[in-house]
Amino acid sequence: MDRTPRILVFANEPILIVDIMSELEARDFEVEPMKPGEHDGARPFKRVDVAVLDINRSDEPSLNLVSDLLHFDIPLIVLGASDDMSRLGVNTHILPKPVDYNHLSDLLATLTASTDPAPNRRSGEQPEALMPG
Q1: What is the pTM for the complete model shown?
Q2: Looking at residue 76, what is its pLDDT?
Q3: Which residues contact 113 (CB under 8 A, 6 or more apart)?
Q4: H-helix segments, the chain
């Protein structure tokens, strides 16, 4: 991969976003944070290789985010979720909480090595940037 892997981090708790960002940036990942309410479904994801999600409730905005990520074939790592979340698809990985950042980092390295840093893997087009609202 010719560029730094870009990881989308979504969590309901701001302190968890900060913790994950700090840990992943220290491990040479580029992190794009997203808080609840920042995803409106209208903005596609630009150059996001993997998404790390801490979804502690299955509300409509969270499910819409998951659906949009899966639409763009972006692998998901869901933190602390039940195994029922694995039914979302082959690109969904479940990690227990508390987060083992060494394990998370290894999984991210594996997933980003196996993903095409190409634009949108479905259409071949480069989607618009994901920018906080």
Answers
A1: 0.77
A2: 92
A3: 1
A4: 14-26, 60-71, 101-114
